[in-house]
Amino acid sequence: xxxxREFTAGLLAAAVPGEKVIVASxxxxxxxxxxxxxxxxxxxxxxATFFVCEFPPDFEDKSKYMTWEQIxxxxxxxxEVASHTRTHKHVxxxxxxxxxxxxxxVENKFVSLGIPKPVSFAYPSYxxxxxxxxxxxxxxxxxxxxxxxxxxxxxxxxxxxxPSLTMRxxxxxxxxxxxxxxxxxxxxxxxxxxxxxxxxxxxxxPQTLFEEHLAHWKKQGFRVVALRDL
Length: 230
Ligand SMILES: [Zn+2]
Description:
This protein has one domain: Glycoside hydrolase/deacetylase (TIM Barrel), CATH 3.20.20. The protein contains 7 helices and 8 strands, in the order αβαβαβαβαββαβαβ. Strands 1, 2, 3, 4, 5, 6, 7 and 8 form an 8-stranded parallel β-sheet that branches. Helices cover 35% and strands 16% of the residues. It is globular, with a radius of gyration of 17 Å. Helix 2 runs parallel beside helix 7 and helix 6 packs parallel to helix 7. By secondary structure, the protein is of the alpha/beta class. The longest helix has 18 residues. The protein binds zinc ion. The site of zinc ion has 5 residues, from loops.
């Protein structure tokens, strides 16, 4: 006999036949993830992964980036908080030991804040290297999200090289076509930056556009999840 809690957890984890799943992931810890994105996702009942780092040079500028307290609040709201390295250093600019140190710093920071040790990782600027996959596996990570601009196919694609498409202010139709591929064996994963993103205007997404995408996901009946939920 299952308890109600176990039963509910089972429902959340199990894939319902015919259900369309998409992954929403948010990079770089811009301030708008706490102030605009998280409340909107909650309103729609959507899950998400937030890949955080201390983005140089001005992580201390809180008009641009979340505080660690805000990042902890994302965890408390039920979202996945995951690793994007400490300093957004690309994996082709490090060796295994340096990469491990970047990961370890974030893991320790999470522990100090009461956030679970991350199981998901996003490669800074989508740069991947085979050594990095080995380090992620050794450290207990389950997923590595990359770029690649195509839909994730579990069983065919390496989960440590999970493809994703980046939402921008000029690709509304492309993103809608992309998510509409959701179905058996096909999970579209999106990479989204600030809504808005004042630190990185080249990946800015205006709030009105973001809400158009959210409404589209709702209308299509998508289950919107974090990487860890897959
Ligand atoms: Zn990034």
